[in-house]
Amino acid sequence: MKQSKRIIVLLLALALFLPAAVPVQAADIALTITGDGVEKETVFTLAELKAMTVLRNAYSAWNTWPAKSTYYAEGVAIAALLEKAGLRSNATTINIAEAPAADGSIGYNMTFLMDDLLAERYTFDGTKKAVPAIVATKLGEKSFDSMDEIDLRLIYGQLDAQEQTTIGFVKSISVITVTCDPVRQLPKPIAAAEIQSNGQYSVSLTTSNVNAKIYYTTDGSTPTVHSAMYNISAPHWQPHLNVPITASANTSIKAIAVATGFADSEVLSFTPANPSGETQPTENPLSGKGMANFAKSGVYQSGQFSDVEASQWFGSVVTSVFEYGLMRGTSADTFNPSGNVTLAEAITIAARVHSIFTTGSENTATGNPNPWYQANVDYAIANGIIASSDFLIYTRAATRAEMIYIFSRALPQSEFKEQNKVNSLPDVGSGTPYYDSIFMLYKAGILTGNDAQGTFNPDRGISRAEAAAIISRVILPDTRVSGRTY
Is the pTM of this model over 0.70? Predict the structure, then answer.
């Protein structure tokens, strides 16, 4: 008994020398997660955040100027933080806010839907790769070696390489509020059409939400974040880049508004000949569109191009693209079959294909004629063939991969029916630029490769003869190759 008392006294004495548990001081709190969408309010010090599993990734991004950039970031996954706070199954929104100002006023903040930050998103920095949304503690804009310690900042991936995400990269994060509030839906975009002197219409799209982006199609398909973006620049930056869509009277335009924190709007359906957009026409909105629109508009005279002979492998395809009005000579009597195709030429060919498919005629060069290709580039951007940020110099030679990307968007994807099995290609993988477009045209029998294995050479330039062969298969499905396996 005496021995037990001695032990108790000794333990009490030792306790006097042990440090007491120190509560977290308000000044030490770096981040608070609160709201009715979590089980408990949870606070983190900076040291606690850094002690959690640290993730490091490169994040491709696009701002509302618009301009592309890459962020090299290190931090903690939003999902891991919410898990510690006990995320409720009925949570709907996440508000990310910077610390209040000294006068107590609310700082910059953004509201997101759960899927905006927790569903799979990607970086398009070289290869498409899934990346998590994080609260970053380190950030650099040149490389991982350039990263510096920063105030907490939200960084997340893109759904599409053109998605403008940097507006949501909230700096100096202090509070994350998770709620179970009802989700708000954006209103449909508003369309207005004005007829031009050439009989075409100029169609403008607007939205009441200043942060919303409008995505649209002109082939009757339902738009998504992978469709062409109408308002590519914020109104206070470069509004002149938000170019109206050039359309015929019966062009079927569909558009949606998309913004973080909101459910996507309902789809706006609009034709210039039916401005209300509410009463659908009784006729097929795609009437007048289709592969049947491709018809010969000229006759190739034997020997017309001195550098093209019928016996050469490209003789028949040069004849075809000339007679269908898709490619012309580099002079009155030469085609230059071995010459490189420039981006401007590839875009011009694709614009012609799109216009003929859509309207039955070539109506692309109705805009700025200086330089010669500008009107076709404007048409391609307006009709979703390319994005304005895809290429900086249009006069340079196109790579084979770039040309396939451009050609693959000249027609609706439904016109590229799969008739070959493509399991893999020797030199095309998920890290190859535009690999989705390349695989689609292999499957459709438009591309066949340079050998039995289907080698493509994506980074090599492409000749005018090769371009003629490919675009002739695009518009003439009967000439496509079928029954192959790669």
Answer: no
